[in-house]
Amino acid sequence: MSNVPITVAYGDGIGPEIMKASLLVLQEAGARLDIETIEIGEQVYLRGHKAGITDHAWDSLQRTNVFYKAPITTPQGGGYKSLNVTIRTAFGLFANVRPCASYYPSIDTRHPMMDMVIIRENEEDLYAGIEHRQTREVYQSLKLISRPGSERIVRYAFEFARKNARRKVTCFTKDNIMKLTDGTFHKVFKEISEDYPEIKSEHWIIDIGTAKLADQPEQFDVVVVPNLYGDILSDVAAQLTGSVGLGVSSNIGEEMAMFEAIHGSAPDIAGRGIANPSGLLLAAVPMLIHIGQGDVAEALHNAWLTTIEDGIHTRDIYQTDRSSQLVGTMEFAQAVIARLGREPERLRPVHYGQESPMDAHMPTTTIVSEKALVGVDVFLDWTDADRDPQALGKKLEAEVNTSTLKLTKITNRGQNVYPGEVHAAFFVDHWRCRFESPDNQPVTHMQVLELLQQANAAGLDFIKTEHLYTFDGKAGYSAIAGE
Ligand code: NAD
Fold first, then answer.
1. Probe target for ligand 1 pocket from 265, 278, 308, 330, with the most ligand atoms within 8 Å of CB
2. What is the rounded CA–CA span in Å between residue 454 and residue 233?
3. Of the residues 16, 51, 113, 408, which has the fewest C-beta atoms closer than 10 A?
4. Does residue 265's CB lie within 6 angstroms of at least one atom of ligand 1?
5. 315 CA distance to ligand 1 centroid (A)?
6. Preceding omega of 357 cis (within 30 degrees of 0)
7. Distances (CA, A) of 413 to 424, 429, 464
8. What is the predicted pLDDT for the residue at 48?
9. How far is Cα 275 from Cα 264, in angstroms, rounded to an integer?
10. Does position 441 have pLDDT exceeding 80, yes or no?
């Protein structure tokens, strides 16, 4: 069998030590790899590459499509982009897969039966990083969730469950509040779950769901979540296993994939030869399966489990009542190498020998619907008249009032403040003024511009507009509280 080219980065801090140890184990386990080494991280940032990566490194990633990455240090101070976010978006790495399993009794945990996989959407949500300061008092961040993006990640989660003989997929959202964004993710989850009748599916609101996951993690199997919730939840789950230091993250795209430990570059212990290489070493397991070398993944993972079971532990997981020998980074790697070919006795051995790589091409549907513009939310920066909403409402009705678009509501921080009396604690300088066409008659862009011209003539500082559309007659915008 021929070697598979992969790109390797040694990273910063403890990165070089744990990568050297991991590659040694990979070599001794018989991994068939052609390694291209690239430089990323702190020194590259400090040489002026704001994303922490050079053109030469991009070329290698494009060539191999497999990235085995040690942790890097992000320099303090502004202006630097997160390399992980840059790589995820540039290569469309839409799925972040994090297994979170306990290794009890070898590693202490309050949840010995825990064995879940968190599948986090990796490209959308608040991570688009589209933020604005709109007034002196108010800032916004745009949460973008797409239907195809949701379909891809949810289907990936069900395919993953099917391939790995897992019984249940759980979805977490906050769709009782975010009915359109999280609502779409949940709706897609319900639709796609019907294609997998043999797999149980359930949905939890993220707040109570997280509480349940923290209390009874053994109740969960595969979990699929939008980006931000997944970021938080996967660290909570990794911590519950007893050691974040063993956590692994696979970032999967249709063409490219990146494999790494979840911990950082640990500058506090760098260069001392005491770091635990397990997170990075275990990240090689899904990488080997991904490139069709399940046999090597199996040998490596079972040797690692046996080492842990034998109590050969680095300082971060060493406990006098559970460990037999305290070792450094390279000694740990040598101990794993010495156990290649063995299986653990108390911990559950793994079997990937015949495993085929998972196809990451997930089909998405094309949405055809009748879209109509029926109104506009005009956002104002307004502090006149002691911020009295009645005064603003009367001014708009008198001066910003076209034949097609009529003021229907004003809100401040989402609360309905006009028409009607309000007893709000305070009003900020950011007002949403909703103008709608009577009976939802379609309006044109020119009619919206006419409205804005009137607002301009009235001396109002409009800072943003959001168009109100219907799709097949159904509102594509949130109702105003109190409606
Ligand atoms: P960290 O994970 O590097 O360290 C947190 C603590 O865990 C430290 O006490 C450290 O000594 C310990 N630790 C981490 N990995 C260990 C290991 N393998 N063996 C033994 N102990 C280990 O988190 P941090 O200190 O918040 O971040 C340090 C740097 O890493 C920052 O610059 C951060 O931006 C970066 N970082 C990078 C990645 C990545 O490249 N994927 C991820 C997280 C953080």
1. 265
2. 48
3. 113
4. yes
5. 15
6. no
7. 10, 10, 15
8. 85
9. 11
10. yes
0.90 exceeded by pTM: yes
d(C-alpha 245, C-alpha 270), whole Å = 15
- For 147-171, b/e burial (b = at least 16 CB within 10 A) is ebbbbbbbbbbbbbbbeeebeebbb
Token pair in block for residue 9? 């980065």
Does ligand 1 lie within 6 Å of residue 275's CB atom? yes
Higher per-residue confidence, 240 vs 425: 240
Q: Would you state the pLDDT for residue 220? A: 98
Rounded distance between C-alpha atoms, residue 411 and residue 449, angstroms = 22
Instruction: Return the number of other C-beta atoms located less than 10 Å from residue 39's C-beta.
Output: 15
CA–CA gap between residue 85 and residue 101 (Å, rounded): 26
Q: How many helices (H) and strands (E) does the chain have?
A: 13, 20
Distances (CA, A) of 103 to 50, 111, 215, 284, 293: 39, 10, 18, 18, 24
Q: DSSP secondary-structure letter at 12?
A: S
Distance CA 166, CA 186 (A): 20
Tokens of 354: 């015949």
Q: Are 51 and 85 in contact (CB under 8 A)?
A: no
Distance 72 CA to ligand 1 centre (A): 9
**289-313 average pLDDT score:** 97
Q: Which helix (H) or strand (E) holds 304?
A: helix 294-309
Q: How far apart are CA 107 and CA 308, in angstroms?
A: 8
Rounded CA-CA distance 393/121 in Å is 42
- How far apart are alpha carbons 462 and 142 in whole angstroms? 18
Q: Above 60 in pLDDT, residue 421? A: yes
Cβ of residue 19 lying under 6 Å from some atom of ligand 1:
no
Only one residue has tokens 């019907």, namely 194
pLDDT in tens, 82-140: 888 889 888 999 999 999 999 999 988 899 999 999 999 999 999 888 999 999 999 99
Residue closest via CA to ligand 1's atom 5 equals: 266
* Mean pLDDT estimate for the chain: 94
- pLDDT-based confidence at residue 52 (cuts at 50, 70, 90): confident
Kindly report, residue by residue over 169-191, the tens digit of the pLDDT.
999 999 999 999 999 999 999 99
Task: Give domain limits for the chain.
Answer: 4-338, 371-475
Confidence of residue 483 (pLDDT cuts 50, 70, 90): low
371-475: CATH number: 3.30.70.1570
Binning pLDDT at 50, 70 and 90, where does residue 427 land? very high
pLDDT of 374 over the 70 cut:
yes
Best CATH choice for the domain 4-338 from the list 3.40.50.1980, 1.10.10.10, 3.40.50.200, 3.40.718.10: 3.40.718.10
Type of residue numbered 156: Y
Q: Is 218 in the pocket of ligand 1 (CB under 6 A)?
A: no
